[in-house]
Amino acid sequence: MSTHGKLRKAEYDAQVKELRSQLGEQLRGLETQAEAKQQLLQDLGDFLRRKGELELEYGRGLERAAERLGARLREHPAMRRGDQDLPSGLQCCQAVLLQARQAGREHGALGEACVGPLNLALAQLSDDVGRLTKKAKELQQRSQEDLLAAVAEVQPALRTYQGYQAEALSAEAKLREAERQEEKRRGRPNPSSAPPGPPAGVGAKTPRRGSMTKGERLVEKRLVRAQEAQLKAAKARNDYLLLLGAANARLRVHFLHDLDHLLDCCDLGFHTGLARTLQRYMGAERRARGGPLGRLEGLDGAVRGLDPSGDKAKVMEANPSAYCLPPSFEYQPHEGDEVAEVVAEGSLRAELSQRLQQLQTRLSALDLEKEELSKTLQATLGSLAELMGTEEHDGLELGIQESQDLTPTRTPPGKRRAQLQETESFYLAKLSDFLQDRSIQAKLESKRDQLQAALKRAASAEKLGRTPQHLRCPRPLSQCPGQGFPSDLETFVQSTGEPIPLVVKSCIRYINLHGLQHEGIFRVPGSQVEVSELRNAFERGEDPLADPVTPISLDSVAGALKLFFRGLQPPLLPPELYNDLIATDQLPTGPYRLAQLHAVLSKLSAPTLVLLRYLFAFLNHLSQYSDENLMDAHNLAVCFGPALGGLPPGTDPVGAQPRFDAAVAALVLQPDAAFPAPPALSGPVYEKCMALHVDDGDCDSQQLEGVAEEGDAPPGTSPSALPISCDDLPMAPGPQRWWGRPEVNGARSLIPHTFPVLPECASPVDGEFKNPPTETTLEPSSRLRVDSSGTQGRGTSPGRRRITHFTELGHMPLSGGGRGGLHADRAEPKSTGDRQGLVQTFTEVDKAVSRHMTSVFQELRGRAALKPLGAPNSPPAFPKE
C-alpha cells in the first residue's frame, strides 16, 4: 500500500474510532440519565415518607390533645347536668375540640398517603424508568450495531475497489506496452530482405504478416482484458460509492432521528407518572388543609410546566460530544482515478437500471410498511397514555370515599399494571421495527438517488454521443466434457482437475452479475422446468448461463445451484460433524467461537474446503445486500443449510435443524475467519466483481506475448523453446498460417499450418512437379515433438533434429485432397490389414513432414549463422512465405 493509501486508511480508522467512542458515550448517557431520574425519584420518595411520618405523628398528637381536652370538658358542670343550652364559652371549646379531631384525622390521612401510595407510586415509577432504560439501551445498541455494520461494509468495498482499480491500471499499462511494441515492429526495417545496392534503412520491407498478425492479436487480447478489468473496477467503484452513501445516510438518520426516539423511549411515562403523583400529593394537601392553599400554587405551576421535549433538548445540549452529528465519511479514490461518482456507461447501464427498478419496488413496500407502523405506534401511545392516566392509586387511600366506584366493570389494579407493561412491550417492539425500516429506507434512498443521478448523466451523455461502449465479447456455449452434476466431489476433482464444478461457477457468476439484489433469492422456488433444463445442459457439458440468448429466472438458477449441493454424497458437511458444529452454537459470539468452527472444518478434505470457502464467500457477499434482497445470514442459512449437510440418523429434524442452521449462519457471517486463507489452502477464491469471461480462443496470453516480443529479446539471451502443442498455440489467419516455435541450435521459427505431401515418384521437371504436391492441414488435435536425442535414423543425418508427428489410430486428423493426397477416416480400423495399412500411411506422412521441416530448419540455421539471434535488435527468424 502506498504512503497516500496508508494515510487515508489511518484517517478512516481514526474516524471510526471516534464514532465508536461517541456511540459509547451515548450508551453511558442513557445510563447516567436513568440513574439521575431514579435518584430524583428516590429522594422525593424519602421526603414524602419522612413527611408522612411527621404528619402521622402530628395527627396522633392532635388526637391525644383532643382527647385530653374532651376529658376536661366532660367534667364541666353543665356537661354533667346534661344541659341542652351550654354556655357560649363551652361551645367554643367544643368547636376547637372538633376542629382538632378533624385536623388529626386529615393529617393522619396525608401521612398515610405520603408513606404508602405516593411512595409506592414513586418506587414503581423508578422501576419503570429502569426497565424502559434497559429496553431503550437494547434498541440503541441494535441501532448502533446497524450503523457500525453499514460503516464496516465501506472498508472492504474500498479495498475491493482499490484492488480492481490496480488491476485495471496494470492491464492498461500492459495494453500500452503491447501497442508500443506493435508500433515498433510495424516501423522496423528487415535487413535480410533489403536489396544489396541501397544503403541500410532505404527501401525497408513491409512488416511480416505472421508477426504482424500475432502482435495485433496480442493487442486485441490485452485490449479485451483491459476493458474487462475496467468494467470490474467500475463495478467495484460503484459498489463502494453506493455503500459509502448508504453509510453516510445511516449516520445522519441515527443522529438526527433515531436518538430522538430512543431518548423519548427512556422518558416514556416518566413525566406523566411524576405529574400524576405530585397532583395526588397536592390534592392530599388541600384536603388536609381544608381547601385551596396559596403555597401550593408554585408546585402546581411546576407540575404543569413539565416538558419532556425541553428536557431532551437540554440533555443533548449538555453532551455535545455524544449527540452532535459527526462528519461524513469521505470518498477515497485510488491513485490516478478521477471518477468520484457512480457511472452507468456501457454494459453497466442495463444492470443499474434493473437495480434501480428493484430499489423503487422495495422502497414502495417499505413506505407502506412504515406508514402502518407509524399508525400502530400512534394508537399504542394513546393506549399507554390512557392506562397511565388511570393507575390504581388514583383517589385510593387519600381520604376519599371511593368504595362505591369500585364496580365490577373496573379493571383490577394488578391486571391494569400487567396490561400497561404488555402495552409497553408491544410499543417497543413496533418501535424497533419502525427504526429498522427507517434505517433500511435511508440507505436504499441514498442508493436510489445515486443510481438515478448516474442514469441521468448516462442518458445525457448518450444524447451528446459521448457514451463509451465497453467491449463485451459474445461467448458461445462452452463445452466442458465430464462436468455436470457429480455425486462425489472428491472423485470429480481427481478425475477432472477442476476444484470448482462448472455448475457452481456458472450459477454463482450469473447471480453475481444479475441477482445480488433479487428479492427472496434462494428462498423463492424457481420453475421446475427451467431447473431441469439447466441440469440437462450442464450434464451435456454446456454452460447455458454463459451469455444466454433468452433471460433465465434467477430463482431457477438458485434452485439449480441448491439442487447440485443437495445431490452430493456425502454432503459437504457430513453428519459426523453435526455434533461438533452445533456445539459451537452454544459458545459466545467472538474469536473463540470462530476458532472452534475453524478447527471443526479443518477435519474436511482439501477439495471440500475449497468449494465451501468459495460458496460461503459468495453467500457472505449476497448477505451484504440484505436490505434489498431480504436475505440476511440467518435466512440464507435456513434456505441453504439443508442442502449442505445431513443430520445424524435418528435425530429429530424439528429441534436439530435450527441449531445446524445457526452454525451455517456463523459461517456465512465470517467465512474469512472460518476457512483457511489461500496461502494455507490453494484453490480458486470468489471474486465480488465479476464479468462475462472473455473467450481466450486457442492461444495463451503468455505464448502470444512471447511471439510478439521475440525480436526484443535482451542481448546475450535466447528465448526458451515452447512445447509445440497445436491445442495451445495460436494459428494466424491468412493463406499461410503457423503453429508454434521449435528451436534448432538456438534458432527458432514457426511451424507452417499447411505443408506439401510429396509422393515418392514426385520430382521437379523444369522447375515444376509432374505430380503436384497435395497440401495437408495440421489439425489442432495433433502433437509435434522435436526429437533432440541426436540419434541417427532413416532419413536423418548425425546431429540433425527430427520432427515426429503423433496421432491416435482411428482418429487421424490429417486430410488431403487430389492426387497423392491422404485421407484417414475417423472410424476405428475394422481389420488387421486395414490397421497395418493405416500405420504405413502414418509412416509415410511422418517421412514427408520430416523432409519438409528439415529443409526449413536448414534455412533457419543458415540465417542464424549470418547474424546471431541474441544480437541486439535482431529480427526473429521466420520462414519466408
UniProtKB/TrEMBL annotation:
Ranges of residues in domain Rho-GAP: 487-675
Pfam short name (any one): RhoGAP
- Which sequence ranges are marked TM in the entry? none
Enumerate the spans annotated as F-BAR domain. 14-311
Protein name per Swiss-Prot or TrEMBL: Rho GTPase-activating protein 4 isoform X1
Q: Where is the composition biased (Basic and acidic residues)?
A: 173-185, 822-833
- InterPro entries referenced in this protein's UniProt entry, alphabetically: AH/BAR_dom_sf, F_BAR_dom, FCH_dom, Rho_GTPase_activation_prot, RhoGAP_dom, SLIT-ROBO_RhoGAP
Q: Which gene encodes it?
A: ARHGAP4
Question: Which top-rank group of organisms is this from?
Answer: Eukaryota
Could you list the residue ranges forming a coiled coil in this record? Answer: 349-376
Q: Name one GO biological process term.
A: signal transduction
User: Is the Ribosomal protein keyword given for this protein?
Assistant: no
Q: What keywords are assigned to this protein?
A: Coiled coil
The record's region (Disordered) falls at: 173-218, 763-834
